[in-house]
């Protein structure tokens, strides 16, 4: 017994050491030298746009954080802003990368004018004349001014997690999504007309994975170990990506609306780019308002199949769980509501007493709570009948469950259903005043087809 106890303690120490070592070995220990800045997925896109015949001269006075929001803090207040304050510089870099715009200095125009005045004064003082030596080339003036900024930073747009613990050993994972929104508009300096406004958004993902071990190895000895890692998407890169997407959209929509007609070398260069942009915009129009998850709006029709386990709640004891299933068709009446018709088979059994099978037919109205999300709860209710060999029994049913849309057409479902009988003779025994009923749980697949549901 003592040997077993020692082996048990050694095994627990080994598990604890493994968890701790995994964390220690993943901790950065060496200093890293500075590197060039990372690029976003849209940086190559704006760099590879067809070059214009002439660049558009633009001025950017300010493109700032307009949210006024500070970083969230668990303890106390934080005076650090949630959004980087150098968004004008990020926009100017994106304009330069696109090769479509010739940006002129306007954010710190006072510094530029002061320096030019110093040059004039110095030349005048040391040239010995007041002629051409004091002249400077004229400043460029902008035909278009770019305005806008980061107008919102929404925290905890979507949060969630999963975890489990058994016998002192547990693990958990959590995630959080924030969201930034950028507006960019082009204004004509000649007329003041707003030529084009574009709007982009970007989610910011933070994840945390943790594991822990907690166990009493003796009456006064406790062993505990923790391991975890957290990753936060840099806000600066998220802001850069949103601004670069705004610049890309401004160029493409400007070409599409003939704002840059005089600047194009060949309009056909943008044919494929505009087609891809329109396709992306069509998908974006189906995106849910919070921007945290792509719209998963189901097509208007579906066929489905379930396998389920059923147990009768009747007058006999020793009810046995039996297997059954059903197949059916559903059609959406609105984005949330659909009508369903199905047929199936069910078996009622009490061990050693009664066993009978029958065909089922049901009509249900189902309410899908979040049709634009991949993951959505649902509830339903309806009426039906069971065709037993002796005679049919009528019933009502209600149920609910969860659906996860794996692709546009295929979804996995988990469900639970309660069948309420109208009579007390499902098990061929009438006793008491309570009608017979049944409980079932199951899993199945939905295959969607047809056009998307567009009704409200």
TrEMBL record:
PROSITE patterns: PROKAR_LIPOPROTEIN. Pfam families: CsgG. Keywords: Cell membrane, Lipoprotein, Membrane, Palmitate, Signal. It comes from the Bacteria. Gene3D superfamilies: 2.40.160.20, ABC-type transport auxiliary lipoprotein component (3.40.50.10610). SUPFAM superfamilies: OMPA-like. GO terms for cellular component: outer membrane-bounded periplasmic space. This is Curli production assembly protein CsgG. It comes from Marnyiella aurantia.
